[in-house]
From TrEMBL:
<dbReference type="GO" id="GO:0015234">
    <property type="term" value="F:thiamine transmembrane transporter activity"/>
</dbReference>
<feature type="transmembrane region" description="Helical">
    <location>
        <begin position="77"/>
        <end position="100"/>
    </location>
</feature>
<keyword id="KW-0812">Transmembrane</keyword>
<feature type="transmembrane region" description="Helical">
    <location>
        <begin position="112"/>
        <end position="133"/>
    </location>
</feature>
<feature type="transmembrane region" description="Helical">
    <location>
        <begin position="51"/>
        <end position="70"/>
    </location>
</feature>
<comment type="similarity">
    <text>Belongs to the reduced folate carrier (RFC) transporter (TC 2.A.48) family.</text>
</comment>
<keyword id="KW-0472">Membrane</keyword>
<dbReference type="InterPro" id="IPR002666">
    <property type="entry name" value="Folate_carrier"/>
</dbReference>
<protein>
    <submittedName>
        <fullName>Thiamine transporter 2</fullName>
    </submittedName>
</protein>
<dbReference type="Pfam" id="PF01770">
    <property type="entry name" value="Folate_carrier"/>
</dbReference>
<dbReference type="GO" id="GO:0005886">
    <property type="term" value="C:plasma membrane"/>
</dbReference>
<keyword id="KW-1133">Transmembrane helix</keyword>
Length: 141
């Protein structure tokens, strides 16, 4: 994960044009690795899926943070990233209570991979549709 995050700094990409496309692609890769872990019984495939998920997720977070930071002034960094962390923790807590906790759905591990894979599929779809719209609108100008 840290190696992929470091690689972002060395890749020459127009992030304004392809940042959301990258977010969509890596979200889709996260979804694919989670679906792999759901649909396989092979422990080594699950380990490979976890490694792929973690690397793509760290890269996804790095790109998203960069996309947000580009449009902020230096004075707003702490407020924005503090708020982002708070909202992310709140969403993670709600999702964990609903999916994992016995007071919620209390789903088994394999079904959790299916739920989280579906979650990343929706996120990937949103980013991919938005990036296609952005690329088409820029190309048509």
């Amino acid at each position: 994960g840290s190696a992929t995050s470091m690689a972002v700094g060395y890749v020459k990409v127009n992030w304004d044009l392809s940042g959301e496309l990258a977010l969509g692609i890596f979200s889709a890769m996260d979804a694919g690795s989670l679906f792999l872990m759901h649909f396989t019984d092979n422990i080594w495939a699950c380990y490979a899926g976890y490694l792929a998920f973690k690397a793509c997720y760290m890269l996804l977070i790095t790109i998203a943070t960069f996309q947000i930071a580009v449009s902020l002034s230096m004075e707003r960094y702490a407020l924005m990233f503090g708020f982002n962390n708070f909202v992310a923790l709140a969403i993670q807590t709600i999702l964990t209570v609903v999916v994992v906790d016995s007071k919620g759905l209390g789903l088994d591990i394999s079904t959790q991979f299916l739920i989280y894979g579906s979650y990343f599929t929706v996120i990937a779809g949103i980013f991919l549709v938005r990036s296609i719209y952005t690329i088409i609108s820029i190309k048509c100008r």
